[in-house]
TrEMBL record:
This is Lipoprotein. It comes from Archangium gephyra. It comes from the Bacteria. It holds the Pfam family LVIVD. InterPro entries: LVIVD (IPR013211), WD40/YVTN_repeat-like_dom_sf (IPR015943).
């Protein structure tokens, strides 16, 4: 959901001047132009620069998480997805820059380190220049990706199988009837026969045209997919090896409707649509292959201008719990589906509320909410009284490790923790989450590393067959078994 600085730069390139700059040439993004006189740069001598770094660039108080990847071969290094142009990481210096050229215009993005509080942490200054003149400046913080100290590859969980996708980044999975349906963003959907979880077999794929598919769900013999350009897609999968498209909802009048999160509760389907109207669409799926729209709900207290929009959600006992991005967690009573009622919300500074899981633990209803951005953490929230939500516990791995998927089974919470892989938590006491198992899925040598902030384990499901099914952006479909 975060715009990368590369996208911002790409948009700027479209409007760069088309004639030469006749003024005196400037170099305000070159290393000598940065004022580092007040910095303590002694820690840079201990920094091992090569590897994947997750970073957060802050401009005017707004953070943009992204990544860079350094190798001894500069031609293979990347700064914000683009080839590195200049690197100086020797002694007490840490400087990186990348350049874009178009016609008579040039753009440079540069990072200059100011301090290294630890060998795997860097803080410093960010600048962007057009034709050598600075037009944006801010700060950055970066963390080197590596396995948590003292951990092995796994504990309490074994990998049963690993199946790389033919192409694309695996982002979500749903398992039904012995088949795993894997969403892969712009590459669409891949269907695997997992009757033998140790040997998944691809049986079908659906490739979209200029679209992004985010979430999948199967009810009976009907597959639902959220589309970035068409909303809700409906497929007949009575024969999973030959999926047949039925329709796109809510229809042709909403061709630019963005579908994101997806949840089915009984005979209702909830689709979270961040844009263009920041709404939740609720469908009747009593006839799964012929959904009908019941209502469109917008959280009245939210403000789209502040990036407050629904991303993901779950339903428990006619309460809809929404990861509502900058708004935080929103709670909505959907007993009367025609008239949903806002019951409360939990907000916090710099919120990027996304994935949610909810369950009854003891005599309380606990919502587990996770943020996606820099400083991501898992919060345990007592939502028994939705008008007075309180945080009762939290779990976090580090500022650069985002939570992208949650599945709650009883008091056990399965967490897709991005670069820190699968985390299994005992939440019988939500105030003190206890990690009872893990599997470190991140391997720096996998293709595609260092190109995105949201990289690593992206989803996890426990369908009740004794296995855990997960998606990993580089490794594809992973099947685990608890030991």
């Amino acid at each position: 959901m975060n715009r990368s600085l590369v996208v911002m730069a790409g948009a700027l390139l479209l409007t760069l001047p088309g004639c030469p700059n006749t003024e005196e040439e400037k170099h305000e993004c070159d290393l000598p132009a940065f004022n580092l006189s007040a910095c303590d740069r002694s820690g840079f001598a201990a920094v091992q620069a090569d590897g994947v770094w997750k970073t957060n660039v802050t401009i005017d108080g707004v953070g943009t998480p992204t990544a860079f990847f350094l190798t001894p071969d500069q031609s293979q290094s990347l700064l914000f997805v683009t080839p590195l142009s200049e690197r100086n990481v020797e002694g007490e210096t840490f400087y990186l820059a990348t350049d874009y050229e178009r016609s008579f215009s040039s753009l440079r993005i540069a990072l200059a380190g100011c301090e290294a509080p630890a060998p795997d942490r860097i803080k410093g200054q960010f600048r962007r220049c057009v034709n050598g003149e600075m037009d944006l400046e801010g700060t950055f913080e970066a963390a080197r990706v590596h396995r948590p100290a003292g951990e092995q590859e796994a504990s309490g969980v074994e990998l049963v199988s690993e199946t790389a996708l033919p192409r694309g980044r695996a982002m979500d999975v749903f398992v039904s009837g012995g088949y795993a349906y894997v969403a892969a963003l712009s590459e669409g959907l891949f269907i695997y026969d997992v009757k033998d979880p140790a040997a998944p077999r691809k049986v079908a794929e659906i490739t979209p045209t200029a679209d992004t598919w985010n979430r999948v769900w199967v009810k009976d013999q009907t597959l639902y997919v959220t589309s970035q350009t068409e909303g809700l897609l409906v497929y007949d999968v009575s024969n999973p090896e030959a999926p047949r498209r039925l329709m796109a909802l809510p229809g042709s009048t909403d061709t630019v409707l963005a579908g994101w999160g997806l949840f089915v509760d009984g005979e209702r389907l909830y689709m979270m649509s961040p844009s263009p109207r920041a709404e939740v669409l609720i469908f009747n799926v009593s006839k799964p292959s012929a959904p009908s729209l019941l209502t469109r709900y917008y959280v009245p207290e939210s403000d789209t201008l502040k990036q407050e929009y629904p991303v993901d959600g779950v339903v428990l006992n006619n309460r809809l719990y929404l990861g509502h991005w900058a708004y935080g967690l929103a709670v909505v009573d959907v007993t009367d589906v025609a008239k949903p009622v806002s019951k409360g919300h939990f907000g916090y500074d710099n919120a990027t509320s996304r994935t949610v899981a909810v369950g009854a633990i003891g005599d309380r209803t606990i919502a587990f909410e996770a943020s996606e951005g820099w400083g991501s953490r898992l919060r345990a929230l007592d939502v028994s009284d939705a008008a007075h939500i309180t945080e009762v516990g939290r779990f976090e791995m580090g500022p650069a490790s985002a939570v992208l998927g949650l599945t709650l089974v009883g008091t056990k919470l399965y967490v897709a923790h991005n670069q820190d892989g699968l985390r299994v938590l005992d939440m019988s006491n939500p105030s003190t989450p206890r990690q009872i198992a893990y599997y470190n899925t991140w391997r720096e040598t996998d293709s595609g590393r260092g190109r995105a902030f949201l990289d690593g384990l992206s989803g996890v499901k426990a369908p009740g067959d004794g296995y855990l099914y997960a998606t990993e952006t580089s490794r594809g479909l992973l099947v685990f078994r608890e030991q």
